[in-house]
Design goal:
By secondary structure, the chain is mainly alpha-helical. It is 60% helix and 0% strand. Helix 3 runs parallel beside helix 11. The longest helix is centred in the first third of the chain and has 48 residues. It starts with 15 loop residues before the first helix and ends in a 25-residue tail after the last helix.
């Protein structure tokens, strides 16, 4: 399916459908308080009409309250929308850094040049191994924004989350290696282990080569690569270690754990010589992207964990209630029962503004008015899967440069 079909399509501007729309409006949220004010206004009108009790108030009372109520409502609504918009900006920055890091890993990570060997003649099995490592990194990158969403919502059902499954593979590998090290120290393990084990199929659902496609090159080139790139060396013997996700300490903060694993992979790429082409600047760019991703996580945590002060919300509702309860006393003399719909409209307007502010002040929930976080995560996943499925790697022949017209002086330049 083309990517364009997944993009949000702006609806045509229409007025009347939104006027009569209940789903998605603030009406269900404020219906009870509005009806309460309406019943109170009807009671005041009935008392004024059928009794001799003088319950009328001067019109000078309402302006005194209306100014205060208006200022408080404007500030309340503006503060809530600032939180909503800040959350959207943080998500946009997270999306940008995720795309950038996926592109940098896919292009910059390449097989190191063994001593005395042309880099263009790297073993195809080595290339496949590096591709699987990059796919693993990009799968963790896909899992990061979804883990941020579940973290902000305080959803701890980690056993059903895709990002947990992806991260579990990393933890399983680490547990196998730790077990192997212990057995090696005891004299029961094999020699020559690496830090990377089997990589399962990527999120895109395609099968990847199994363990039988491990790095097996010939003679000197293989030894040189193994010495310089321990990341490419297979473990000859592994112990199956079961990871209990619900009790594993690394799963308690999923986004930070994924960021940690991504940073470790970049460090291993650097140590293995897979980032020699881009040098320290390229490595710093990738680690800088991860740093910004963590910064955006912290910024969204600030929005999520900083509620509006309770005293402010209480005082706002008290002022609005006093204003609406005072309104019938000032209008009953001139309008009688006719003031009931007027009071209802005013109550709906003021309470609706406060209700909207209450709904958008926490933008990371699952309500209709909250940010469509799942949509943003799906979009990031499609973008990264598009990179893995269709875009060439940095050292991969794509035919683009070869098809360019060349001059005589271009013979010395090889792409």
């Amino acid at each position: 399916m083309p990517l364009e079909e997944h993009r949000a399509v702006l609806a045509k501007y229409s007025w009347l459908p939104d006027v009569f729309r209940i789903n998605g409006s603030v009406i269900p949220h404020v219906l009870g308080p509005v009806l309460t004010v309406t019943v109170f206004a009807a009671l005041i009108a009935a008392v004024d009409r059928h009794t001799s009790v003088d319950i009328k108030l001067s019109n000078n009372v309402v302006p005194l309250l209306s100014v205060v109520v208006g200022l408080i409502l404007v500030f309340r609504n503006g503060t809530s929308y600032d939180r909503y918009y800040e959350g959207r900006k943080d998500l946009a920055t997270l999306t940008s850094q995720t795309r950038n890091l996926a592109r940098l890993i896919w292009i910059n990570v390449a097989a190191p040049t063994p001593t005395g060997t042309d880099s263009s003649k790297s073993s195809p099995k080595v290339q496949r191994k590096i591709t699987k490592l990059k796919i693993r990194a990009l799968r963790l990158l896909i899992a990061f924004p979804r883990s941020v969403v579940h973290h902000l919502r305080q959803e701890n059902g980690s056993e059903s989350l895709e990002e947990t499954r992806i991260l579990t593979e990393q933890l399983q590998d680490r547990a196998r290696i730790d077990t192997y090290r212990k057995r090696s120290r005891a004299g029961t393990g094999a020699s020559g282990y690496g830090t990377t084990s089997e990589v399962t199929s990527p999120v895109r659902g395609k099968e990847t080569p199994s363990r039988s496609n491990s790095v097996e090159s010939n003679a000197t080139a293989t030894r040189a690569i193994n010495q310089e790139t321990p990341l490419l060396v297979d473990v000859e013997r592994q112990e199956e270690v079961e990871i209990h996700i619900d009790h594993h300490p690394m799963i308690q903060n999923m986004p930070l754990t994924i960021a940690h694993e991504l940073t470790r992979m970049i460090w291993k790429f650097k140590r293995a010589g897979m980032l020699d082409t881009v040098g320290p600047a390229g490595t710093n760019a990738m680690t800088g992207s991860i740093q910004i991703m963590v910064d955006m996580l912290t910024a969204m945590e600030r929005v999520s964990n900083t509620p509006i002060p309770a005293s402010y919300g209480i005082h706002l509702k008290q002022c609005v209630t006093l204003y609406l309860f005072a309104l019938p006393f000032t209008m009953v003399k001139d309008m009688g029962y006719g003031m009931i719909p007027i009071v209802t409209v005013v109550a709906f307007t003021l309470m609706g503004i406060e209700g909207i502010a209450n709904q958008i002040e926490m933008p990371f929930g699952k309500d209709m008015d909250d940010l469509p976080l799942e949509k943003y995560c799906d979009e990031m996943q499609r973008d990264i899967e598009y990179v893995m499925d269709y875009l060439p790697q940095g050292d991969e022949e794509d035919g683009f440069m070869q098809d360019m017209p060349q001059d005589d002086d271009d013979d010395a330049v090889t792409f």
